[in-house]
Every structure is written in structure tokens, then in C-alpha cells.
Amino acid sequence: MTDPSGQETVPRVGEQPRAAATTRVFIALAPPDEAKDELARALSPAYEAYPRMRWNRVEDWHITLAFLGELPVTAVPSLQPALARLAAARPPLELALRGSGHFDERVLWSGIDGDLEGLHSLATEVRAVVEECGVPFAGRPLRPHLTLARARRDDTACVVAAAAALAGFTGRPWRAARLHLVGSNFGRGPGPIRYRDITSWGFAER
User: Which of 102, 119, 175, 203 sees the fewest Cβ atoms within 10 Å?
Assistant: First the structure.
């Protein structure tokens, strides 16, 4: 538990910690550590030049296939069997991180290269599974990317400059070998959001 200042507190004797009633949920792919390390090295000059940007933690980098938003925690288990079957029936995807850009001078991202047709096909199947499970979500068009950072409201020029510096980046190819069901009930408020795998499933071996 935490108090309003964000400090850890100890429950009173006999008091049970309150479990969160909802969690933010999305379904995603995650680059392997080697690919993330390669991109992090390319970002080193930007980290140094723009320390005020709200940089995402490297371990939280992911490619969102379907963002489900805030769900009751009781709704999450119903998704798992169908997503497990979907992953078991699909081969891994061959992808790479490439280039950079920004959304509205606020969000810095890295682009995705490789089997984009397969990526879009996977996202379509994932979203169909979610709908079949009766979980509503906003079906925004898929724009494959890896979110890296967000600008402060008073300093959006840094995102534009960082994107331009990273535009020529070309990462090594890698295999997206697992489908991840991710949740977050941390970072509510002004602090950074923290993600955790609820579970993940390996794709079929070729």
C-alpha cells in the first residue's frame, strides 16, 4: 500500500491490502533484449540531450496489437484460453525496429519493419478473439510502433529533434516469439505507468 505521498505503508494488523478492481489491459508483442539494447544505444545521445522528456523504461517497450483499456480484473481470465489457442496456431513473426517519428510533436516512437502483413493479420485475429470473448474495446487502426518517450507540455521541440536524429536507425531483424497479455495498475497519477505481463504464450515453432 502507499500513502498520498507515494511512500510504502504497512497494513494495520488484521487489515488486508485492497486489490484493484480494474486494470489497464493490452495485447502486445515485445522485442527481445538484444533488439532493445541496440535501440537504447542509438538513443543514448537523446537521453543525454533531452533529460526532461518522459522516457519509457526499456523493459516496458512493446508493440500494441489491441488496447483494451480499463477492464474489471474479473474479465481478464476469460481472454486467456482463446489467446493461448491463437498463439499456438501461429508461427513467430520476423520483425525489426527501424526509423523514428512522432505523434503531434508529443510522442516519440520507433517504427517497425519486417513482416508487416503478418503483423496486421495477427492484430486482426487478436481483435476478433477479444470481441468473441465479449470484451468491448476501441478498435483504432493499427499503427505499428514502439513508444519511446513523451514530451513535457512546455517543450515539444525535443520530440521533433529526437525523432529526426533517430530517423536513420535500422535495427537487426528479430523474431517475435510470444504473445503478451499485459496489465497495469501502477503509476496511476502523475508518475510513470508501470506494466507487467499477466501472462504470455509462445507462438508455434516452424
Answer: 175
Residue 80 neighbours by CB under 8 Å, 6+ apart: 181, 199
108, β-bridge pairs: 102, 149
Specify the amino acid at residue 17.
Answer: P
Catalytic annotation present for 120: no
User: What confidence tens digit (pLDDT) does each residue in 144-171 have?
Assistant: 999 999 999 888 899 999 999 999 999 9
Catalytic residue among 102, 120, 145, 180: 145
Cell 527481445 -> residue: 32
Active site residue 62: yes
pLDDT in tens, 55-96: 999 999 999 999 998 888 888 899 999 999 999 999 999 999
Distance CA 25, CA 48 (A): 32
Q: Do residues 194 and 60 lie in contact, with contact meaning Cβ atoms separated by under 8 Å? A: yes
What is residue 191's three-state secondary structure? coil
- Distance in angstroms (rounded) separating the CA atoms of residues 51 and 114: 31
From 62, 102, 120, 180, the catalytic residue: 62
